Amino acid sequence: MTQVSERIANLAISETLAMSQKSTELKAQGINVINLSVGEPDFFTPAHIKEAAKKAIDDNFSFYTPVPGYMSLRQAVSQKLKKENGLDYKPEQIICSNGAKQAVCNALLAVVNKDDEVIIPAPCWVSYIEMVKLAEGKSVVIRTGIEQDFKMTPAQLEAAITPKTRAIILCSPSNPTGSIYSKDELKALADIFAKHPNIIIIADEIYEHINYIGKHESIAQFDSVKDRVVIINGVSKAYAMTGWRLGWMAAPQWIVAACNKLQGQYTSGASSIAQKAAEAAYLGDQQCVEDMRQAFMRRRDLIVKLASEIEGFKVNKPEGAFYLFPECSYYFGKSYNGKTIHTSADLAMFLLEEGHVASVGGLAFEAPDYIRFSYATSDENIIEAMRRVKETLAKLK
Ligand code: PMP
Ligand code: GLU
Q: What is the Å distance from ligand 2's center to 228 Cα?
């Protein structure tokens, strides 16, 4: 009677959201937890964006929205893609959703049939594999480590492609590693895709603006593949708007039409108020984006310095996003107070319970030897968190 469907029974819970929830519960018990688990900007949404949302309420933007989003927002996104990325997408090739999360899931549901293979370079964001499951596809994970800066090589990609490959999810800048594919690296990957015209390239570019090495590069710039690239983006990270739930995809029209059909039966158009706010974000002054990027870069430097001083951590210097992903297997097999650490999930739990720092174990990102810290928090929190991590890990013998 109470048996849920196999679809849900087989689905893992989102580890990022679960760790964050656990941290909130401990805080409610009066424990001073520093939450470096969930990845979201700690800044408030910029004032001019909030004003646009208030105006939208007063102007009665209270009715159902068109399923793919207001034309004015799709135009603003089309202009953004031209101006910032040099890419030509008509507003008809853009569909807005409830966050970039829904946009990724829409893309998979739109193109993947049962048992189709979807290539996922790992470490990867927690939700990709579960979304592929929902689409009844099969994930084919390409493993990469810190020694290759977590980037797959063209040879690795080529070896993973089979006649059943339907799609790949490429995330750059990456969650959880912060790695960024350069233009040359993307070109080398595009050259391989050019030989396999049936593969849809889902390019998750949600961290586009949190980039410490220069201009964002999209794989959609290469004409050899552009007609099967699905760009995923949104306002969550760049404009500190995670709770507004507004993301979008820019894609070939047949994929947008499929997502329109899916969304029309499933969620309808995204929130009217969030859409008007997003429009203001794209059309307004972009200084807020740069100010937040600068702050994230300072914090990146700070956490890299402090984490490098922790015994047993192997740390790289992430080029984007707001995560540090140290290798931590040095601690596996070590114990404290009768508790032995076997996995990075054990380590994350130990750091939470013993050190009151919330992080996420690497297994959830298909990288069991690593642990993720989100540094989208104040310098003060970063300093205190790393002090606690160092002190807590030193107890393990
Ligand atoms: N892709 C990646 C790589 C992310 O880290 C996130 C944030 N959780 C998303 C997509 C989803 O973003 P949104 O909050 O807009 O749904
Ligand atoms: N991008 C964030 C993270 O990875 C948000 C949480 C989520 O949706 O997974 O922590």
A: 26
